[in-house]
What does this fold into?
Amino acid sequence: MKQWLSFILTKQFLKHAALMVLAFLAFILLLFFWFRVYTQHNKSLTLNDLTELTLEQAEELLDSKGLNYVIVDSSSFNPDYLPLAVIQQNPAPESKVKNGRTIYLWLNAGATPYKSIPCLMGNATLNEAFYHLPQVGFKIGEITYVAMEELKEGNPILKMFIDDKEVKCGDKAQWGQKIDLIVGERAGANKVAIPKLLGNTLQVAEFLMNADLNFGSIIYEMNGLIDSSSAVIYKQLPDYGDEEVRVGSTIDVWLIQDLPADVSKRLEELKSDTTSQDSN
It folds into this structure.
């Protein structure tokens, strides 16, 4: 035991022990320094919003920041984005990332896909068309109504057109295409007479339309206008006496502070005609 103590207390042993401790501390410091460099301690980048950028633009931006990318998917199509534009990314925009991080990208499809048009002719109503067509990526275009004497209810789909070309079952069209419809309706259904709005204020005119019709353009004659709430309608389109219109149609109106003489005269004539008809 005394020999061991004597050896430990020798200058040679203490010198070697000190060198070992210094070497160990140097190793720890080097390891800590390497770890800081490897993980880029306190150094991070703010990830840009890459959505709507083309793949080339996104690649250039990521390269400039020392970031990598992987394309996850490019089969989905969104009409709000350009072909092959980024539509989703992970991590999200404004995330803090380290140099060399891999960014995952979802791209828009390279071309507008073609979809099969649902076979609705003779098999579905207008309400069903409003559900099925958008569900597969098509838009409702112009709707033309055809009166059908024997029809009791509903609006069956009679024909479908794309750019004036009739669509047949099994046809395909590009995603987002507008499809015009010809539908049947019960003769005389869903139509109302155009009310006489001339000479009335906007508030009274709204009451006369009885929620069946809506205002389109509302135009005030500013010359001489004192109070818009008391201004009266001196012109309407469609005009009173025109053919019946569908429920939900709009009427454009023009208002003025004082009714012009010619409009007052017309109102008197219309009033006289109504009185004559009632007396008969």
Q: What stands out?
A: The mean pLDDT is 84.
